[in-house]
Amino acid sequence: MVAEDNVELIYRHMRKLDEFVTPGAAAKRLGYDRSTLSVAFREGRERGRYETRDSAKWTNPITGGPATEYRAVPRHSSRP
To answer: Using an 8 Å Cβ cutoff, are 40 and 6 in contact?
Structure first.
């Protein structure tokens, strides 16, 4: 679990970034731990704050499948 203040701050940073990134890439750009970002992205996804796509470039080291990339969407968006 990530503190609500951090979830909100990460969301604001991601809105400014406005592109699809993996948690690892976001960690380098935003200065947060990759694990923290992964949890914040999953929580935010459940709230409709992020959209996802499979990465064409990166793979998930655990599954061997494509890594998941996240992008923040506006709060008023109706995306799932």
So the answer is: yes
